[in-house]
Amino acid sequence: MLVALAGGVGAARFLRGLARVLPPTEITAVVNVGDDTELHGLRISPDLDTVLYTLAGAINAETGWGLTGETWTVMEALEKLGGLTWFRLGDKDLATHFFRTQRLAEGETLSEVTRQLTRAWGVDVHLVPVSDDPVRTRLQLVGGPEIAFQEYFVRLHHDVAVSGVRFDQAESARPAPGVLDAMATASSIVVCPSNPVVSIGPILAVPGISEVLAARREQIVAISPIVAGAALKGPADRLLTELGFESSVVGVARWYASWVGTLVIDEADAALAPAVEGEGIRCIVAPTIMSTVERAASLAQTVLDTHGD
Amino acid sequence: MLVALAGGVGAARFLRGLARVLPPTEITAVVNVGDDTELHGLRISPDLDTVLYTLAGAINAETGWGLTGETWTVMEALEKLGGLTWFRLGDKDLATHFFRTQRLAEGETLSEVTRQLTRAWGVDVHLVPVSDDPVRTRLQLVGGPEIAFQEYFVRLHHDVAVSGVRFDQAESARPAPGVLDAMATASSIVVCPSNPVVSIGPILAVPGISEVLAARREQIVAISPIVAGAALKGPADRLLTELGFESSVVGVARWYASWVGTLVIDEADAALAPAVEGEGIRCIVAPTIMSTVERAASLAQTVLDTHGD
Q: If you placed Cys at A235, which of A128, A158, A277, B303 could pair as Cys (CB 3.0 to 4.6 Å)?
Protein backbone atom coordinates (compact mmCIF):
# COMPACT_ATOMS: atom_id res chain seq x y z
CA MET A 1 0.00 0.00 0.00
CA LEU A 2 1.25 3.45 -0.94
CA VAL A 3 0.18 6.57 0.94
CA ALA A 4 0.08 9.99 -0.73
CA LEU A 5 -0.28 13.28 1.13
CA ALA A 6 -2.42 15.42 -1.09
CA GLY A 7 -3.62 18.96 -1.58
CA GLY A 8 -5.60 20.02 -4.64
CA VAL A 9 -4.74 20.35 -8.32
CA GLY A 10 -1.06 19.22 -8.32
CA ALA A 11 -1.85 16.25 -6.10
CA ALA A 12 -4.86 15.32 -8.20
CA ARG A 13 -2.79 15.25 -11.39
CA PHE A 14 -0.06 13.20 -9.75
CA LEU A 15 -2.56 10.73 -8.32
CA ARG A 16 -4.18 10.25 -11.70
CA GLY A 17 -0.75 9.31 -13.06
CA LEU A 18 -0.03 7.09 -10.06
CA ALA A 19 -3.28 5.22 -10.63
CA ARG A 20 -1.93 4.31 -14.07
CA VAL A 21 1.18 2.62 -12.71
CA LEU A 22 -0.21 1.12 -9.50
CA PRO A 23 -3.57 -0.59 -8.91
CA PRO A 24 -5.82 2.21 -7.61
CA THR A 25 -6.95 0.06 -4.70
CA GLU A 26 -3.32 0.05 -3.46
CA ILE A 27 -3.25 3.84 -3.15
CA THR A 28 -4.45 5.77 -0.11
CA ALA A 29 -4.57 9.52 -0.55
CA VAL A 30 -4.65 11.44 2.73
CA VAL A 31 -6.17 14.76 1.74
CA ASN A 32 -5.90 18.23 3.24
CA VAL A 33 -9.04 19.66 4.82
CA GLY A 34 -7.57 23.02 5.82
CA ASP A 35 -9.16 24.57 2.71
CA ASP A 36 -12.61 23.40 3.74
CA THR A 37 -15.24 26.04 4.21
CA GLU A 38 -18.94 26.63 4.78
CA LEU A 39 -20.84 28.83 2.39
CA HIS A 40 -24.63 29.10 2.07
CA GLY A 41 -24.78 26.46 4.80
CA LEU A 42 -22.95 24.00 2.54
CA ARG A 43 -19.92 22.01 3.66
CA ILE A 44 -17.32 22.44 0.95
CA SER A 45 -14.11 20.37 0.77
CA PRO A 46 -12.24 21.76 -2.24
CA ASP A 47 -9.18 19.50 -2.13
CA LEU A 48 -11.16 16.29 -1.68
CA ASP A 49 -13.40 17.30 -4.58
CA THR A 50 -10.55 18.28 -6.89
CA VAL A 51 -8.85 14.94 -6.29
CA LEU A 52 -12.14 13.05 -6.68
CA TYR A 53 -13.21 14.78 -9.88
CA THR A 54 -9.74 14.42 -11.39
CA LEU A 55 -9.55 10.70 -10.62
CA ALA A 56 -13.07 10.31 -12.01
CA GLY A 57 -11.94 11.98 -15.23
CA ALA A 58 -14.59 14.66 -14.69
CA ILE A 59 -12.46 17.65 -13.74
CA ASN A 60 -12.62 20.86 -15.73
CA ALA A 61 -9.14 20.61 -17.23
CA GLU A 62 -8.96 24.30 -18.07
CA THR A 63 -9.56 25.68 -14.60
CA GLY A 64 -8.22 22.68 -12.68
CA TRP A 65 -11.24 22.83 -10.37
CA GLY A 66 -14.92 22.06 -10.76
CA LEU A 67 -16.57 19.74 -13.23
CA THR A 68 -16.29 19.60 -16.97
CA GLY A 69 -19.44 20.63 -18.84
CA GLU A 70 -20.58 22.60 -15.82
CA THR A 71 -23.49 25.08 -15.79
CA TRP A 72 -23.90 28.10 -13.49
CA THR A 73 -27.65 28.62 -13.10
CA VAL A 74 -27.62 28.85 -9.31
CA MET A 75 -24.73 31.34 -9.18
CA GLU A 76 -26.31 33.53 -11.86
CA ALA A 77 -29.61 33.62 -9.96
CA LEU A 78 -27.75 34.30 -6.71
CA GLU A 79 -25.89 37.18 -8.33
CA LYS A 80 -29.22 38.78 -9.24
CA LEU A 81 -30.27 38.59 -5.58
CA GLY A 82 -27.04 40.26 -4.50
CA GLY A 83 -25.84 37.11 -2.76
CA LEU A 84 -22.34 35.88 -2.07
CA THR A 85 -20.86 34.71 -5.37
CA TRP A 86 -17.09 35.20 -5.20
CA PHE A 87 -16.73 31.49 -4.51
CA ARG A 88 -18.15 30.00 -7.71
CA LEU A 89 -20.10 26.78 -7.30
CA GLY A 90 -21.33 25.08 -10.46
CA ASP A 91 -24.73 23.41 -10.60
CA LYS A 92 -23.42 19.84 -10.91
CA ASP A 93 -20.68 20.42 -8.38
CA LEU A 94 -23.33 21.63 -5.93
CA ALA A 95 -24.78 18.14 -5.79
CA THR A 96 -21.55 16.98 -4.12
CA HIS A 97 -21.85 19.67 -1.45
CA PHE A 98 -25.55 18.94 -0.93
CA PHE A 99 -24.78 15.25 -0.50
CA ARG A 100 -21.91 15.90 1.90
CA THR A 101 -23.78 18.49 3.95
CA GLN A 102 -26.90 16.38 4.33
CA ARG A 103 -25.00 13.24 5.34
CA LEU A 104 -22.83 15.13 7.81
CA ALA A 105 -25.97 16.68 9.31
CA GLU A 106 -27.33 13.16 9.71
CA GLY A 107 -24.28 12.27 11.78
CA GLU A 108 -21.98 10.56 9.31
CA THR A 109 -18.29 11.41 9.26
CA LEU A 110 -16.43 13.20 6.49
CA SER A 111 -14.45 10.02 5.75
CA GLU A 112 -17.66 7.96 5.43
CA VAL A 113 -19.21 10.55 3.13
CA THR A 114 -16.00 10.70 1.10
CA ARG A 115 -16.08 6.92 0.70
CA GLN A 116 -19.68 7.15 -0.55
CA LEU A 117 -18.76 9.87 -3.02
CA THR A 118 -15.76 7.98 -4.38
CA ARG A 119 -17.99 4.91 -4.83
CA ALA A 120 -20.66 6.98 -6.59
CA TRP A 121 -18.02 8.34 -8.95
CA GLY A 122 -16.46 4.92 -9.55
CA VAL A 123 -13.08 5.92 -8.08
CA ASP A 124 -11.03 3.08 -6.56
CA VAL A 125 -8.23 5.11 -4.97
CA HIS A 126 -8.91 5.38 -1.21
CA LEU A 127 -9.53 9.05 -0.52
CA VAL A 128 -9.34 9.91 3.16
CA PRO A 129 -9.59 13.37 4.70
CA VAL A 130 -6.69 13.75 7.11
CA SER A 131 -9.29 14.32 9.84
CA ASP A 132 -13.03 14.07 10.31
CA ASP A 133 -12.72 17.03 12.64
CA PRO A 134 -12.45 20.61 11.38
CA VAL A 135 -9.00 22.06 10.64
CA ARG A 136 -9.18 25.56 9.17
CA THR A 137 -6.21 27.28 7.59
CA ARG A 138 -6.06 30.98 8.44
CA LEU A 139 -3.66 33.58 7.11
CA GLN A 140 -2.41 36.66 8.88
CA LEU A 141 -2.20 39.50 6.38
CA VAL A 142 0.64 42.00 6.66
CA GLY A 143 -0.88 45.07 8.31
CA GLY A 144 -4.31 43.52 8.11
CA PRO A 145 -6.64 41.00 9.69
CA GLU A 146 -6.35 37.25 9.89
CA ILE A 147 -8.57 35.72 7.23
CA ALA A 148 -9.89 32.30 6.28
CA PHE A 149 -8.13 30.35 3.54
CA GLN A 150 -10.76 30.72 0.82
CA GLU A 151 -10.97 34.46 1.42
CA TYR A 152 -7.24 34.56 0.76
CA PHE A 153 -7.14 32.06 -2.06
CA VAL A 154 -10.30 32.83 -4.00
CA ARG A 155 -11.70 36.19 -2.95
CA LEU A 156 -8.33 37.98 -2.81
CA HIS A 157 -6.71 35.77 -5.51
CA HIS A 158 -3.80 35.21 -3.04
CA ASP A 159 -2.57 38.62 -4.17
CA VAL A 160 -1.86 39.96 -0.67
CA ALA A 161 1.17 39.77 1.63
CA VAL A 162 1.03 37.19 4.41
CA SER A 163 3.04 37.22 7.61
CA GLY A 164 1.80 34.03 9.18
CA VAL A 165 -0.26 30.90 8.71
CA ARG A 166 -2.01 28.83 11.34
CA PHE A 167 -4.31 25.84 11.31
CA ASP A 168 -7.25 26.66 13.50
CA GLN A 169 -8.68 23.79 15.58
CA ALA A 170 -5.87 21.48 14.43
CA GLU A 171 -4.74 20.83 18.01
CA SER A 172 -8.07 19.19 18.83
CA ALA A 173 -8.45 17.32 15.51
CA ARG A 174 -7.93 13.57 15.45
CA PRO A 175 -6.55 11.72 12.43
CA ALA A 176 -9.39 10.07 10.49
CA PRO A 177 -9.77 6.32 11.09
CA GLY A 178 -7.03 4.36 9.34
CA VAL A 179 -4.78 7.32 8.57
CA LEU A 180 -2.09 6.63 11.16
CA ASP A 181 -2.10 2.90 10.41
CA ALA A 182 -1.80 3.52 6.69
CA MET A 183 1.14 5.86 7.23
CA ALA A 184 2.84 3.50 9.65
CA THR A 185 2.61 0.49 7.34
CA ALA A 186 2.85 2.01 3.84
CA SER A 187 5.61 0.67 1.61
CA SER A 188 6.22 4.28 0.66
CA ILE A 189 4.76 7.68 1.35
CA VAL A 190 4.61 10.32 -1.36
CA VAL A 191 4.23 14.01 -0.65
CA CYS A 192 2.43 15.20 -3.76
CA PRO A 193 3.54 18.39 -5.55
CA SER A 194 1.18 20.45 -3.41
CA ASN A 195 1.68 23.71 -1.57
CA PRO A 196 4.02 22.79 1.32
CA VAL A 197 2.61 25.55 3.54
CA VAL A 198 -1.15 25.46 3.10
CA SER A 199 -1.78 22.00 1.60
CA ILE A 200 0.73 19.74 3.34
CA GLY A 201 1.01 21.96 6.41
CA PRO A 202 -2.52 21.29 7.70
CA ILE A 203 -1.99 17.54 7.31
CA LEU A 204 1.11 17.69 9.52
CA ALA A 205 -0.71 19.89 12.03
CA VAL A 206 -3.09 17.12 13.04
CA PRO A 207 -1.69 15.62 16.27
CA GLY A 208 -0.08 12.22 15.76
CA ILE A 209 0.66 12.60 12.04
CA SER A 210 4.10 14.15 12.23
CA GLU A 211 5.18 11.65 14.92
CA VAL A 212 4.30 8.73 12.66
CA LEU A 213 5.92 10.36 9.63
CA ALA A 214 9.15 11.10 11.55
CA ALA A 215 9.69 7.35 11.89
CA ARG A 216 9.21 6.82 8.13
CA ARG A 217 11.64 9.43 6.76
CA GLU A 218 13.50 6.96 4.55
CA GLN A 219 10.23 5.88 2.91
CA ILE A 220 9.05 9.43 2.24
CA VAL A 221 9.49 11.04 -1.18
CA ALA A 222 8.28 14.56 -1.92
CA ILE A 223 7.84 16.13 -5.33
CA SER A 224 8.73 19.81 -5.44
CA PRO A 225 5.79 22.03 -6.36
CA ILE A 226 8.33 24.76 -7.13
CA VAL A 227 9.90 24.58 -10.59
CA ALA A 228 12.51 27.13 -11.67
CA GLY A 229 11.68 29.27 -8.67
CA ALA A 230 7.96 29.52 -9.24
CA ALA A 231 4.84 27.62 -8.27
CA LEU A 232 3.12 26.01 -11.24
CA LYS A 233 -0.17 27.08 -9.67
CA GLY A 234 -1.20 28.98 -6.57
CA PRO A 235 0.82 30.92 -4.02
CA ALA A 236 3.41 28.33 -2.89
CA ASP A 237 6.32 30.47 -4.15
CA ARG A 238 5.05 33.63 -2.54
CA LEU A 239 4.20 31.96 0.78
CA LEU A 240 7.61 30.25 1.05
CA THR A 241 9.32 33.63 0.58
CA GLU A 242 7.00 35.42 2.96
CA LEU A 243 7.63 32.83 5.65
CA GLY A 244 11.41 33.22 5.32
CA PHE A 245 12.25 30.38 2.94
CA GLU A 246 13.53 30.61 -0.60
CA SER A 247 11.12 30.13 -3.46
CA SER A 248 13.25 27.38 -4.96
CA VAL A 249 13.74 23.65 -4.71
CA VAL A 250 16.34 24.43 -2.04
CA GLY A 251 13.70 26.31 -0.02
CA VAL A 252 11.37 23.32 -0.42
CA ALA A 253 14.16 20.98 0.65
CA ARG A 254 14.79 23.08 3.76
CA TRP A 255 11.06 23.15 4.53
CA TYR A 256 10.78 19.37 4.25
CA ALA A 257 14.23 18.09 5.33
CA SER A 258 13.30 17.07 8.87
CA TRP A 259 10.83 14.40 7.82
CA VAL A 260 11.25 13.80 4.05
CA GLY A 261 14.07 11.53 2.86
CA THR A 262 13.97 12.23 -0.87
CA LEU A 263 12.97 15.25 -2.95
CA VAL A 264 12.14 14.96 -6.65
CA ILE A 265 12.97 18.19 -8.48
CA ASP A 266 12.35 19.16 -12.06
CA GLU A 267 15.03 18.93 -14.74
CA ALA A 268 14.88 22.72 -14.96
CA ASP A 269 16.39 22.79 -11.48
CA ALA A 270 19.06 20.10 -12.08
CA ALA A 271 21.84 22.53 -11.23
CA LEU A 272 20.40 22.93 -7.73
CA ALA A 273 20.57 19.20 -6.92
CA PRO A 274 23.80 19.56 -4.91
CA ALA A 275 22.29 22.43 -2.89
CA VAL A 276 19.21 20.28 -2.21
CA GLU A 277 21.43 17.45 -1.01
CA GLY A 278 23.24 20.01 1.10
CA GLU A 279 20.03 20.30 3.09
CA GLY A 280 20.44 16.66 4.06
CA ILE A 281 17.80 15.30 1.67
CA ARG A 282 18.41 12.90 -1.20
CA CYS A 283 17.65 14.52 -4.57
CA ILE A 284 16.20 12.98 -7.72
CA VAL A 285 16.00 14.98 -10.95
CA ALA A 286 13.13 14.15 -13.31
CA PRO A 287 10.55 15.80 -15.56
CA THR A 288 7.82 16.91 -13.15
CA ILE A 289 5.51 19.00 -15.33
CA MET A 290 2.32 16.91 -15.61
CA SER A 291 0.92 18.40 -18.79
CA THR A 292 -0.57 15.03 -19.77
CA VAL A 293 -1.67 11.99 -17.81
CA GLU A 294 1.19 10.07 -19.46
CA ARG A 295 3.73 12.51 -18.06
CA ALA A 296 2.07 12.23 -14.66
CA ALA A 297 2.30 8.43 -14.90
CA SER A 298 5.96 8.70 -15.85
CA LEU A 299 6.63 10.94 -12.83
CA ALA A 300 4.79 8.45 -10.63
CA GLN A 301 6.95 5.63 -12.00
CA THR A 302 10.06 7.65 -11.18
CA VAL A 303 8.84 8.04 -7.62
CA LEU A 304 8.13 4.32 -7.33
CA ASP A 305 11.54 3.44 -8.78
CA THR A 306 13.21 5.69 -6.23
CA HIS A 307 12.01 3.34 -3.58
CA GLY A 308 13.53 0.37 -5.27
CA ASP A 309 16.91 1.72 -4.19
CA MET B 1 -52.90 49.06 6.70
CA LEU B 2 -54.36 45.58 6.15
CA VAL B 3 -52.87 42.48 7.72
CA ALA B 4 -53.21 39.05 6.10
CA LEU B 5 -52.39 35.77 7.82
CA ALA B 6 -50.86 33.62 5.12
CA GLY B 7 -49.84 30.07 4.36
CA GLY B 8 -48.68 29.01 0.89
CA VAL B 9 -50.45 28.68 -2.45
CA GLY B 10 -54.00 29.81 -1.52
CA ALA B 11 -52.68 32.77 0.43
CA ALA B 12 -50.30 33.72 -2.37
CA ARG B 13 -53.09 33.77 -4.93
CA PHE B 14 -55.33 35.82 -2.66
CA LEU B 15 -52.56 38.31 -1.92
CA ARG B 16 -51.84 38.78 -5.61
CA GLY B 17 -55.50 39.71 -6.05
CA LEU B 18 -55.44 41.93 -2.98
CA ALA B 19 -52.43 43.81 -4.36
CA ARG B 20 -54.61 44.70 -7.34
CA VAL B 21 -57.28 46.40 -5.24
CA LEU B 22 -55.13 47.92 -2.48
CA PRO B 23 -51.74 49.63 -2.76
CA PRO B 24 -49.22 46.82 -2.08
CA THR B 25 -47.40 48.98 0.46
CA GLU B 26 -50.58 48.98 2.57
CA ILE B 27 -50.58 45.19 2.90
CA THR B 28 -48.65 43.27 5.54
CA ALA B 29 -48.67 39.52 5.09
CA VAL B 30 -47.76 37.61 8.25
CA VAL B 31 -46.53 34.30 6.91
CA ASN B 32 -46.42 30.83 8.43
CA VAL B 33 -42.96 29.40 9.17
CA GLY B 34 -44.15 26.04 10.53
CA ASP B 35 -43.39 24.49 7.12
CA ASP B 36 -39.78 25.65 7.23
CA THR B 37 -37.12 23.00 7.03
CA GLU B 38 -33.40 22.42 6.66
CA LEU B 39 -32.15 20.23 3.86
CA HIS B 40 -28.57 19.95 2.59
CA GLY B 41 -27.73 22.60 5.19
CA LEU B 42 -30.08 25.06 3.46
CA ARG B 43 -32.72 27.04 5.31
CA ILE B 44 -35.93 26.61 3.36
CA SER B 45 -39.08 28.68 3.98
CA PRO B 46 -41.64 27.28 1.54
CA ASP B 47 -44.58 29.54 2.41
CA LEU B 48 -42.55 32.75 2.34
CA ASP B 49 -41.12 31.75 -1.02
CA THR B 50 -44.46 30.76 -2.54
CA VAL B 51 -45.96 34.10 -1.54
CA LEU B 52 -42.87 35.99 -2.74
CA TYR B 53 -42.64 34.25 -6.10
CA THR B 54 -46.38 34.61 -6.69
CA LEU B 55 -46.38 38.33 -5.90
CA ALA B 56 -43.31 38.72 -8.15
CA GLY B 57 -45.21 37.03 -10.98
CA ALA B 58 -42.51 34.36 -11.12
CA ILE B 59 -44.35 31.37 -9.66
CA ASN B 60 -44.69 28.16 -11.60
CA ALA B 61 -48.43 28.40 -12.17
CA GLU B 62 -48.82 24.70 -12.96
CA THR B 63 -47.37 23.33 -9.73
CA GLY B 64 -48.19 26.34 -7.53
CA TRP B 65 -44.66 26.20 -6.07
CA GLY B 66 -41.20 26.98 -7.35
CA LEU B 67 -40.24 29.28 -10.19
CA THR B 68 -41.45 29.41 -13.73
CA GLY B 69 -38.90 28.35 -16.35
CA GLU B 70 -37.01 26.42 -13.71
CA THR B 71 -34.18 23.94 -14.42
CA TRP B 72 -33.19 20.95 -12.28
CA THR B 73 -29.46 20.41 -12.85
CA VAL B 74 -28.55 20.18 -9.18
CA MET B 75 -31.31 17.71 -8.32
CA GLU B 76 -30.45 15.51 -11.30
CA ALA B 77 -26.79 15.41 -10.29
CA LEU B 78 -27.77 14.73 -6.68
CA GLU B 79 -29.98 11.87 -7.78
CA LYS B 80 -26.98 10.25 -9.48
CA LEU B 81 -25.05 10.45 -6.22
CA GLY B 82 -27.89 8.77 -4.35
CA GLY B 83 -28.63 11.94 -2.38
CA LEU B 84 -31.84 13.17 -0.83
CA THR B 85 -34.10 14.31 -3.65
CA TRP B 86 -37.70 13.82 -2.53
CA PHE B 87 -37.88 17.55 -1.78
CA ARG B 88 -37.31 19.03 -5.22
CA LEU B 89 -35.33 22.25 -5.34
CA GLY B 90 -34.93 23.96 -8.72
CA ASP B 91 -31.66 25.62 -9.70
CA LYS B 92 -33.00 29.18 -9.68
CA ASP B 93 -35.03 28.61 -6.53
CA LEU B 94 -31.86 27.41 -4.82
CA ALA B 95 -30.41 30.91 -5.07
CA THR B 96 -33.11 32.07 -2.64
CA HIS B 97 -32.15 29.38 -0.13
CA PHE B 98 -28.44 30.12 -0.55
CA PHE B 99 -29.07 33.80 0.04
CA ARG B 100 -31.24 33.15 3.09
CA THR B 101 -28.92 30.57 4.62
CA GLN B 102 -25.79 32.68 4.18
CA ARG B 103 -27.39 35.81 5.64
CA LEU B 104 -28.87 33.93 8.59
CA ALA B 105 -25.44 32.39 9.24
CA GLU B 106 -24.03 35.91 9.28
CA GLY B 107 -26.45 36.80 12.06
CA GLU B 108 -29.31 38.50 10.24
CA THR B 109 -32.89 37.64 11.14
CA LEU B 110 -35.40 35.86 8.93
CA SER B 111 -37.50 39.04 8.70
CA GLU B 112 -34.46 41.09 7.58
CA VAL B 113 -33.55 38.50 4.98
CA THR B 114 -37.17 38.34 3.82
CA ARG B 115 -37.19 42.13 3.40
CA GLN B 116 -34.03 41.91 1.27
CA LEU B 117 -35.53 39.17 -0.87
CA THR B 118 -38.78 41.06 -1.44
CA ARG B 119 -36.75 44.12 -2.45
CA ALA B 120 -34.60 42.06 -4.82
CA TRP B 121 -37.75 40.68 -6.43
CA GLY B 122 -39.42 44.10 -6.62
CA VAL B 123 -42.30 43.10 -4.35
CA ASP B 124 -43.90 45.95 -2.38
CA VAL B 125 -46.22 43.94 -0.12
CA HIS B 126 -44.62 43.66 3.33
CA LEU B 127 -43.84 39.99 3.87
CA VAL B 128 -43.09 39.15 7.47
CA PRO B 129 -42.46 35.70 8.91
CA VAL B 130 -44.67 35.31 11.97
CA SER B 131 -41.48 34.74 13.96
CA ASP B 132 -37.73 34.99 13.48
CA ASP B 133 -37.45 32.02 15.81
CA PRO B 134 -38.03 28.45 14.68
CA VAL B 135 -41.53 27.00 14.83
CA ARG B 136 -41.74 23.50 13.38
CA THR B 137 -45.02 21.78 12.60
CA ARG B 138 -44.96 18.08 13.47
CA LEU B 139 -47.63 15.48 12.79
CA GLN B 140 -48.39 12.40 14.84
CA LEU B 141 -49.21 9.55 12.47
CA VAL B 142 -51.88 7.05 13.46
CA GLY B 143 -50.01 3.98 14.71
CA GLY B 144 -46.73 5.52 13.65
CA PRO B 145 -44.09 8.05 14.55
CA GLU B 146 -44.32 11.81 14.81
CA ILE B 147 -42.83 13.34 11.68
CA ALA B 148 -41.78 16.74 10.41
CA PHE B 149 -44.15 18.70 8.21
CA GLN B 150 -42.31 18.31 4.91
CA GLU B 151 -41.97 14.57 5.45
CA TYR B 152 -45.74 14.46 5.74
CA PHE B 153 -46.55 16.97 3.03
CA VAL B 154 -43.97 16.18 0.35
CA ARG B 155 -42.35 12.83 1.03
CA LEU B 156 -45.58 11.04 2.03
CA HIS B 157 -47.82 13.24 -0.18
CA HIS B 158 -50.01 13.82 2.94
CA ASP B 159 -51.49 10.42 2.18
CA VAL B 160 -51.32 9.08 5.74
CA ALA B 161 -53.66 9.28 8.72
CA VAL B 162 -52.84 11.87 11.37
CA SER B 163 -53.98 11.82 14.99
CA GLY B 164 -52.39 15.03 16.18
CA VAL B 165 -50.51 18.15 15.20
CA ARG B 166 -48.15 20.25 17.28
CA PHE B 167 -45.92 23.23 16.68
CA ASP B 168 -42.51 22.41 18.05
CA GLN B 169 -40.61 25.27 19.71
CA ALA B 170 -43.61 27.59 19.29
CA GLU B 171 -43.81 28.25 23.02
CA SER B 172 -40.38 29.89 22.98
CA ALA B 173 -40.86 31.75 19.68
CA ARG B 174 -41.38 35.51 19.74
CA PRO B 175 -43.46 37.35 17.15
CA ALA B 176 -41.21 39.00 14.56
CA PRO B 177 -40.68 42.75 15.03
CA GLY B 178 -43.78 44.69 14.03
CA VAL B 179 -46.14 41.74 13.86
CA LEU B 180 -48.10 42.43 17.03
CA ASP B 181 -48.28 46.16 16.30
CA ALA B 182 -49.50 45.52 12.78
CA MET B 183 -52.21 43.19 14.05
CA ALA B 184 -53.25 45.56 16.82
CA THR B 185 -53.60 48.57 14.51
CA ALA B 186 -54.72 47.03 11.19
CA SER B 187 -57.95 48.39 9.73
CA SER B 188 -58.79 44.78 8.97
CA ILE B 189 -57.21 41.37 9.28
CA VAL B 190 -57.75 38.72 6.63
CA VAL B 191 -57.21 35.04 7.22
CA CYS B 192 -56.23 33.84 3.75
CA PRO B 193 -57.76 30.64 2.31
CA SER B 194 -54.93 28.59 3.79
CA ASN B 195 -54.95 25.35 5.71
CA PRO B 196 -56.50 26.25 9.09
CA VAL B 197 -54.59 23.51 10.89
CA VAL B 198 -51.06 23.59 9.53
CA SER B 199 -50.81 27.04 7.90
CA ILE B 200 -52.81 29.32 10.20
CA GLY B 201 -52.30 27.08 13.27
CA PRO B 202 -48.56 27.76 13.62
CA ILE B 203 -49.18 31.52 13.36
CA LEU B 204 -51.62 31.38 16.29
CA ALA B 205 -49.23 29.19 18.26
CA VAL B 206 -46.66 31.97 18.63
CA PRO B 207 -47.20 33.46 22.11
CA GLY B 208 -48.90 36.84 22.01
CA ILE B 209 -50.54 36.47 18.60
CA SER B 210 -53.83 34.92 19.64
CA GLU B 211 -54.19 37.42 22.52
CA VAL B 212 -53.90 40.34 20.09
CA LEU B 213 -56.24 38.70 17.59
CA ALA B 214 -58.87 37.97 20.24
CA ALA B 215 -59.30 41.72 20.69
CA ARG B 216 -59.79 42.24 16.94
CA ARG B 217 -62.51 39.65 16.25
CA GLU B 218 -64.85 42.10 14.55
CA GLN B 219 -62.09 43.17 12.15
CA ILE B 220 -61.13 39.63 11.21
CA VAL B 221 -62.43 38.00 8.02
CA ALA B 222 -61.44 34.48 7.01
CA ILE B 223 -61.90 32.90 3.60
CA SER B 224 -62.78 29.23 3.74
CA PRO B 225 -60.16 26.99 2.12
CA ILE B 226 -62.81 24.26 2.00
CA VAL B 227 -65.21 24.42 -0.95
CA ALA B 228 -68.01 21.87 -1.34
CA GLY B 229 -66.45 19.75 1.38
CA ALA B 230 -62.99 19.50 -0.12
CA ALA B 231 -59.72 21.40 0.03
CA LEU B 232 -58.80 22.99 -3.28
CA LYS B 233 -55.22 21.92 -2.58
CA GLY B 234 -53.46 20.03 0.15
CA PRO B 235 -54.77 18.11 3.15
CA ALA B 236 -56.98 20.70 4.89
CA ASP B 237 -60.10 18.56 4.40
CA ARG B 238 -58.46 15.43 5.65
CA LEU B 239 -56.83 17.09 8.64
CA LEU B 240 -60.05 18.79 9.75
CA THR B 241 -61.81 15.43 9.74
CA GLU B 242 -58.95 13.63 11.48
CA LEU B 243 -58.90 16.23 14.23
CA GLY B 244 -62.64 15.85 14.86
CA PHE B 245 -64.07 18.68 12.75
CA GLU B 246 -66.19 18.43 9.64
CA SER B 247 -64.56 18.90 6.28
CA SER B 248 -67.02 21.64 5.36
CA VAL B 249 -67.44 25.38 5.70
CA VAL B 250 -69.29 24.59 8.93
CA GLY B 251 -66.22 22.75 10.22
CA VAL B 252 -64.07 25.71 9.25
CA ALA B 253 -66.51 28.07 10.98
CA ARG B 254 -66.33 25.98 14.15
CA TRP B 255 -62.51 25.90 13.97
CA TYR B 256 -62.31 29.69 13.62
CA ALA B 257 -65.37 30.96 15.51
CA SER B 258 -63.60 32.00 18.73
CA TRP B 259 -61.46 34.67 17.06
CA VAL B 260 -62.82 35.26 13.53
CA GLY B 261 -65.84 37.53 13.08
CA THR B 262 -66.69 36.81 9.45
CA LEU B 263 -66.26 33.79 7.20
CA VAL B 264 -66.38 34.06 3.41
CA ILE B 265 -67.64 30.84 1.85
CA ASP B 266 -67.94 29.86 -1.78
CA GLU B 267 -71.20 30.06 -3.70
CA ALA B 268 -71.12 26.28 -3.94
CA ASP B 269 -71.71 26.22 -0.20
CA ALA B 270 -74.42 28.90 -0.11
CA ALA B 271 -76.92 26.47 1.42
CA LEU B 272 -74.63 26.08 4.44
CA ALA B 273 -74.61 29.81 5.25
CA PRO B 274 -77.22 29.45 8.02
CA ALA B 275 -75.25 26.60 9.59
CA VAL B 276 -72.12 28.74 9.47
CA GLU B 277 -73.94 31.57 11.19
CA GLY B 278 -75.18 29.01 13.69
CA GLU B 279 -71.55 28.72 14.81
CA GLY B 280 -71.69 32.37 15.83
CA ILE B 281 -69.76 33.73 12.87
CA ARG B 282 -71.05 36.14 10.24
CA CYS B 283 -71.21 34.52 6.80
CA ILE B 284 -70.58 36.05 3.37
CA VAL B 285 -71.21 34.04 0.21
CA ALA B 286 -69.01 34.86 -2.81
CA PRO B 287 -67.07 33.20 -5.63
CA THR B 288 -63.82 32.10 -3.97
CA ILE B 289 -62.13 30.00 -6.66
CA MET B 290 -59.12 32.10 -7.72
CA SER B 291 -58.55 30.60 -11.15
CA THR B 292 -57.35 33.97 -12.48
CA VAL B 293 -55.82 37.03 -10.87
CA GLU B 294 -59.00 38.93 -11.75
CA ARG B 295 -61.09 36.49 -9.75
CA ALA B 296 -58.63 36.79 -6.88
CA ALA B 297 -58.92 40.59 -7.07
CA SER B 298 -62.68 40.31 -7.06
CA LEU B 299 -62.58 38.08 -3.97
CA ALA B 300 -60.23 40.57 -2.32
CA GLN B 301 -62.68 43.38 -3.10
CA THR B 302 -65.48 41.37 -1.51
CA VAL B 303 -63.40 40.99 1.63
CA LEU B 304 -62.65 44.73 1.72
CA ASP B 305 -66.32 45.58 1.18
CA THR B 306 -67.28 43.32 4.06
CA HIS B 307 -65.45 45.68 6.31
CA GLY B 308 -67.35 48.64 5.05
CA ASP B 309 -70.39 47.26 6.90
A: A158
